[in-house]
Specification:
Layout lengths: L20 H8 L3 E5 L2 E4 L1 H20 L3 E2 L5 E3 H7 L1 H4 L6 E3 L5 E4 L4 H8 L11 E10 L14 E11 L2 H21 L4 E5 L9 E8 L5 E5 L6 E3 L21 E4 L6 H8 L7 E8 L2 E8 L6 H8 L4 E3 L2 H6 L16 E5 L8 E4 L5 E6 L8 E3 L18 E15 L1 H5 L3 E3 L5 E3 L1 E8 H11 L1 E2 L2 E2 L10 E5 L5 H16 L4 E4 L5 H11 L3 E5 L7 E6 L4 E6 L3 H8 L2
Length: 564
């Protein structure tokens, strides 16, 4: 492709709102243009990279016998109501109506439609297992689109779905997709970790996220240096081995007047204790039921852990009226004399001693509270993990890193097949609900994730497998006939050898061409310049910016060797 014939509007200006390196470089390299908040046009270079990403995805899905199809973006309300997600997804689900008042969702994922697709068409266990996937535009009404392609309202995603007759078959498919995803991201030269995660609105009980490591990432990954353990911070478990009982002299419980101590820090200062020797009590309402949640003063409640532990799906702070109904006082809540609610505590509370707790009386706390002074309905791991905590696999202390979620695999079980009422006949001729899995990759998001890991102060450095072109051929001075002649000769030879080449034949200054070439980041640059009369060209490897001169007759072989 001749550069003056394509559309690569490079620029030195970037939007003031651009925070991520990838966002800045995508704009500067003329790869994307913003249409509106969270909506982008993919310009020719970006489109070529996306097609390379799709090619890798398709090859690895072909290798595991997954068949590609295309589902409609426009999905009728009835299917989403049947699954229960029409309301559950809230404002994130983009909804529209046709001229007759019919309501539709713009596809964010496609569990409902894939179930509708196989219904009455996959009817026997003999047709299972079955894997289907698509690469399709998706829509989610993000509250705050940001970070370029990392959080958009419109994006490209690969979503796959598998159907099985047994849970064992589903787990086997899960492992197969997990390994396929590892190969996909390895081929893109991504540094990533597969982490235990939460299933969110998709549902299911077993899931892993593939997180590309990057400081701009919105997810926090918990890991250790001593094993392959990794988890999203939202789901990272805090094993009970983090705590130990200590010998102590039990003191007499005492009601103490504590004026102006409506915060944990104020209580700790009043009693001269460490904050974690003070009990924090949170009044919550989950699925309409009231809870008093007990934690150490410094610990932060993990909402996802709480909902999983209690089997609830929605959580909010209790109102003043509800706190009053519980017998509590805001700022002075505690487990003694509490009523009309369930009392649950984080595991760490079991190991506290001679600690303070609110007395449910304005301006008063109890001192020297110990186990047995009040009743707890259940103890759970409820707190957010912290750096230095012992990992779930007990391999050592955990560390934190930032990551960009680029893929996720889920075991859905029978949740969708039951809600959508799709069945098959087993070997005994009995109707059974399918076991299902789903598996997603953020295609357009990968564009940004790759750039976040592959760049320098000059611009993008594309991995070979996804580069928009294999070679960037530069004719330094198009006013010099000998340079033009040699560049044209090489251009034709590269094309004839099936090598993807971008030929910079623009009537621009040399400095502009060199800067643009580094910014665009194609792995190899072939420069036809000052030594043309000697039939010598310069080859630059973008990854390390190393330049070496070669005879022009060596170019084709050198390029082929580079891409072996």
């Amino acid at each position: 492709m001749r550069q003056r014939k394509t559309f690569i509007p490079t620029t030195r200006e970037v939007p003031a709102s651009a925070e991520a390196i990838s966002h800045k470089l995508l704009v500067k390299a003329g790869m994307v243009k913003q249409v509106s908040a969270g909506v982008y046009t993919y310009l020719p270079l970006a489109n070529r990279v996306i097609e390379k990403i799709k090619k890798i995805i398709r090859e690895e899905h072909e290798a595991i016998d997954a068949a590609e199809l295309t589902l409609p973006i426009l999905q009728a309300q009835e299917y989403w109501e049947q699954s229960g997600r029409w309301n559950k997804m809230g404002d994130e689900l983009m909804r529209i109506k046709d001229r007759k008042g019919g309501a539709y969702a713009l596809q964010p994922t496609a569990e409902e439609l894939i179930c509708q697709t196989v219904a009455n068409m996959v009817t026997s266990y003999k047709q299972l297992p079955l894997s289907l996937y698509q690469i399709q535009t998706k829509f989610r009404d993000e509250v705050r689109p940001r970070l370029g392609l990392l959080r958009c309202k419109e994006f490209i995603m690969k979503d796959a779905y598998s159907f099985h007759d047994t849970s064992e078959s589903l787990r086997e498919a899960y492992k197969t997709y997990y390994n396929a995803y590892s190969r996909i991201f390895d081929r893109m030269d991504l540094k990533y970790r597969a982490v235990q995660a939460d299933s969110g609105n998709i549902g299911g009980s077993y899931t892993h996220e593939f997180q590309a490591l990057a400081e701009v990432g919105e997810d926090t990954i918990v890991y250790t240096d001593n094993s392959d353990y990794a988890a999203n911070i939202e789901t990272a478990k805090v094993p009970e081995e983090n705590y130990s009982l200590v010998e102590f002299e039990k003191k007499e419980k005492e009601l103490v007047e504590t004026p102006n101590t409506g915060t944990i820090d104020a209580v700790a200062e009043f009693f001269g204790l460490e904050v974690n020797r003070c009990l924090k009590a949170l009044a919550l309402k989950a699925d309409g039921e009231l809870y008093l949640v007990l934690m150490r003063g410094n610990d932060q409640l993990n909402d996802i852990k709480f909902m999983k532990a209690t089997g609830t799906s929605e959580i909010e702070m209790a109102s003043e009226e509800e706190i009053d109904y519980m017998g509590g006082v805001a700022g002075y809540m505690g487990p003694l004399e509490i009523k009309n609610c369930k009392v649950v505590a984080d595991t760490a509370v079991k190991y506290m001693y001679n600690y303070t707790a609110g007395a449910n009386k304005l301006g008063y706390h109890y001192a020297n509270i110990n186990t047995g002074d009040y009743e707890v309905d259940a103890y759970y791991d409820l707190r957010m993990i912290e750096e230095g905590d012992l990992a779930e696999d007990l391999s050592g202390p955990v560390k934190f890193a930032k990551g960009i979620e680029v893929g996720q695999v889920f075991e859905l079980g029978r949740a969708y097949s039951e809600s959508m009422d799709i069945k098959f006949l087993d070997s005994n001729g009995k109707a059974q609900y399918f076991y299902m899995g789903c598996y997603g990759i953020g295609v357009s998001r990968l564009l940004s994730a790759i750039i976040e890991q592959h760049n320098d102060d000059k611009g993008i450095i594309w991995p070979k497998s996804v580069a928009p072109y294999q070679v960037h051929l530069l004719c330094v001075d198009v006013k010099k006939a000998d340079q033009v002649a040699l560049a044209e000769k090489l251009y034709e030879e590269l094309k004839a050898s099936k090598i993807e080449v971008l030929f910079d034949d623009r009537p621009e200054r040399a400095g502009v061409k060199f800067n643009d070439a580094d910014l665009i980041g194609i792995p190899l640059q072939v420069v036809v310049g000052k030594k043309t009369s000697e039939d010598i060209v310069e080859i630059k490897v973008r990854e390390n910016n190393e330049k070496v001169e070669y005879a022009s007759s060596q170019v084709i072989d050198l390029v082929k060797e580079f891409y072996k």
